[in-house]
Amino acid sequence: AAMRSRAEVDATLQTAKLNPAELLPAVQCLSFGPQAGGGECCLLQLEPGLCAELEAGRSLVIRGEKDEHAVLCSKDKTYDMKIADTSNMLLFVPGCKTPEELNADAASCNIIHSQIAGFSKNYWELRRCRPKLKKLRKLLMEDPYEGPDSQKDQTSTFSKYTTEDLLSLIQASEEEILHQLQVIDACKIEGYWRVLDFDYEMKLLNHVTQLIDSESWPLSKVPLCACLEELGSLEPREMIEHILLSYGRKYVDAGEVFFEMREDKICRAIAQMLLQNAVKFNLSEFEEVWQQSVPEGMTTRLDQLQGLALVDRSSRPETIFLLKVEDLPEDNQERFNSLFGVRQKWTEVDITPYIQDLCAEKQTVGALLTKYARSSMLNGVKVYNSRRPIS
What we know:
The chain is α+β, with helices and mostly antiparallel strands. It has four domains: 6-128, no CATH class; 133-195, no CATH class; 198-261, Arc Repressor Mutant, subunit A (Orthogonal Bundle), CATH 1.10.10; 328-390, Orthogonal Bundle (Arc Repressor Mutant, subunit A). Helix content is 36%, strand content 23%. It is built from 15 helices and 18 strands. It has helices at residues 6-15, 48-55, 99-104, 134-141, 151-155, 163-169, 174-183, 198-215, 224-231, 237-247, 263-275, 283-293, 332-342, 348-355, 365-372; strands at residues 27-32, 44-45, 61-63, 71-73, 78-92, 111-116, 118-128, 187-189, 192-194, 222-223, 248-253, 256-261, 281-282, 309-312, 319-322, 346-347, 373-378, 381-386. It has a five-stranded mixed β-sheet, covered by helices on one side. Strands 10-12-11 form a three-stranded antiparallel β-sheet. Strands 13-15-14 form a three-stranded antiparallel β-sheet. Helix 8 (198-215) crosses helix 10 (237-247). The longest helix is centred in the middle third of the chain and has 18 residues, at 198-215.
């Protein structure tokens, strides 16, 4: 296209009945460059924090397999990516000067010819979301570690996963993935992340609690060295240390490493061991057996079982059964469908441990219940049931 002259610009202003005195003296004439196709440019809208990440030279990663909705991850946060359409076409003009820049440069009372390098009618919008971590446990549970003597480990055909593998498969940031590996008590064995088979984990825990008992150590001061010394002939030393890290809090006293055993977590694991072989358990019988099964000096309480087991107060006699929050769907609606399939009406106290992890930033359990359930009163107690029929 021929370049516009100043006279043509002035004639256009006159036709448009615009007063040149009210406008900046510089005129930018835009023309489409030869490569101005819309396809190869994508716009991404970033919040200031993410912008700072990129400016500091850190990278943002888009994660997801072919059948998953893409997410974008920084070092420690995960964002949903959605396409937002705009009613105005957005033009990419390299070296484009803004009115402020033109104002500052008074000498530029001339014509600037700019080429449009590309255009777009939409952009990617990011929304902070919960990391999709359910798959992490699912992958590691395909092949739980049953100990060094397990034949299954030698012949297993399942994949094993390094940190790099998990970063490419799980839709979450690196920090969120590493934190979740801690939450599920995963450990690195020969460079691969593994979770322990539950029976093997209980066997290790049993070795430790029996040793504590026979040595009459206080539960708040279990010495690492002595445990490794005594139990090292029975199981790999790193497994003994792993079980102490999983079920205790590590600290150093006078240069020696000790563990303060976590009563709630140990009681919870033993309850799971007792409950996993029964469909339902008479509550009072269970409470009695449970208290007898935990190490000397520990006290069992039902609130240790939040998100692991559910008490049915309406049955006669009252019963308790295993219902693990990690076995429930990750999607909000599916989670509620699944819970209302187990029980028609829930009190807020009972349902909270099973939906707490669905709360987004600054979201409350109450807000989730308002959205996915309807409330009513039953014998003076507020209960929640499904908004839709459950098939």
